[in-house]
Design brief:
Length: 273
C-alpha cells in the first residue's frame, strides 16, 4: 500500500515546480488540515457517546431497517446464483475491487488531497479532510465488527443467520461490507463538493453499485450492504457538520485580528474584519 500512497503523492508533486514560499504555505495548510482530520476522526468515532433521545430513535429505525432487509438476503442470493457466471463474476469482482479496496482508496485520497493541498484547491482539501475523518472511523468500526460479529458470508453456504463471533476465518467476516463503506464514503464526499447534478448522480451510482456488486458476487448479504451504507452516510454527515463548525469557529476567532506575514517583496500587514 505504501508504494501506491507514494505514487499518488508523486503525481501531485510533479504537476509543477513549487517555490520556497509555496512550500511554506503548503506545509501550513497540511498542518491545519491534519488537525481537522484528527479532530473529525475522533469526533465521528466517539459520536455514540453523545447520543440523546432522537439519536436512539434513529438507531432503532436503523436496526429495524437492517432487520427488514435481511428478508432479502436469501432471495437475492438465489437471484445472484441464477444470473451469475464465471465471466460476469470476474468483471463484477474487478469493479468492486477497483472502487472499494484499500489501495485504490489510498490512491484516490492521495490524488484528491495532494492536488488540493499543493495547488490550494479548497474543495479538494475539504474532501481529503472528510475522507480521513469519515472513512477512517468507519474502517476502524467495520474492522472490529467483522471480527466481533462473525457473520458467515453467503459464499460459505451456511445460511444468512449463522454467526461465529471472533472467528478469524475470512468466511465469517461478512458484517458489514468494507468495500461498500470505502466506495460510498469517497464518492459521497466528493459528490457533496461538486455542483454538477449529473456528476453527483454518477458518483453516488458508483458508491451504491459497489455494495450491489459485493452482494451479487456472494461476498456479502443484502443486509450487510444496507447497514454499511447507513453507517457511511451517518459518518460522512457527522464529519462534515463537525468540519464546517470548526472552520466557522476559526473564522470567528480570526475576525478583528492583525497578522504579519512574509512575502517575496517584504512583509504584509493585514487586518481581518
Amino acid at each position: 500500500m505504501k508504494k501506491f500512497l507514494v505514487l499518488g503523492i508523486l503525481i501531485t508533486c510533479t504537476l509543477s515546480p513549487i517555490s520556497a514560499q509555496e512550500k511554506n504555505n503548503t506545509w501550513t495548510r497540511m498542518k491545519a488540515d491534519a488537525g481537522y482530520m484528527a479532530d473529525g476522526f475522533g469526533y465521528v468515532f466517539a459520536s455514540p457517546l453523545r447520543w440523546k433521545g432522537k439519536d436512539f430513535l434513529y438507531l432503532g429505525a436503523t436496526v429495524g431497517g437492517v432487520f427488514l432487509s435481511s428478508f432479502l438476503d436469501e432471495p437475492f442470493l438465489k437471484f445472484a446464483d441464477k444470473h451469475n457466471n464465471p465471466k460476469r463474476f470476474d468483471r463484477v469482482e474487478f469493479f468492486a475491487d477497483l472502487t472499494g479496496k484499500p489501495r485504490p482508496a489510498v490512491i484516490a485520497f492521495s490524488v484528491i488531497y495532494g492536488i488540493g493541498v499543493f495547488k490550494d484547491v479548497q474543495w479538494m482539501r475539504d474532501s481529503g479532510v472528510l475522507i480521513v475523518a469519515a472513512l477512517g472511523s468507519t474502517v476502524a468500526l467495520q474492522t472490529f465488527s467483522k471480527w466481533a460479529v462473525g457473520r458467515a458470508r453467503p459464499s460459505a453456504r451456511l445460511g444468512y443467520d449463522v454467526f461465529e463471533p471472533f472467528n478469524p476465518e475470512p468466511a465469517f467476516h461478512s458484517f458489514p461490507s468494507g468495500h461498500a463503506m470505502a466506495s460510498l464514503a469517497i464518492t459521497s464526499i466528493v459528490a457533496r463538493q461538486v455542483k454538477s447534478k449529473v456528476l453527483k448522480v454518477m458518483l453516488y451510482g458508483v458508491g451504491f453499485s459497489t455494495g450491489f456488486a459485493r452482494a451479487f458476487n456472494t461476498e456479502h448479504w443484502v443486509s450487510d450492504v444496507v447497514l454499511s451504507n447507513v453507517l457511511t452516510f451517518l459518518a460522512v454527515k457527522t464529519a462534515s457538520d463537525r468540519y464546517n463548525h470548526k472552520k466557522e469557529l476559526k473564522a470567528q476567532k480570526q475576525q478583528g485580528q492583525l497578522s504579519l506575514m512574509p512575502i517575496s517583496s517584504g512583509l504584509r500587514l493585514t487586518y481581518k474584519f
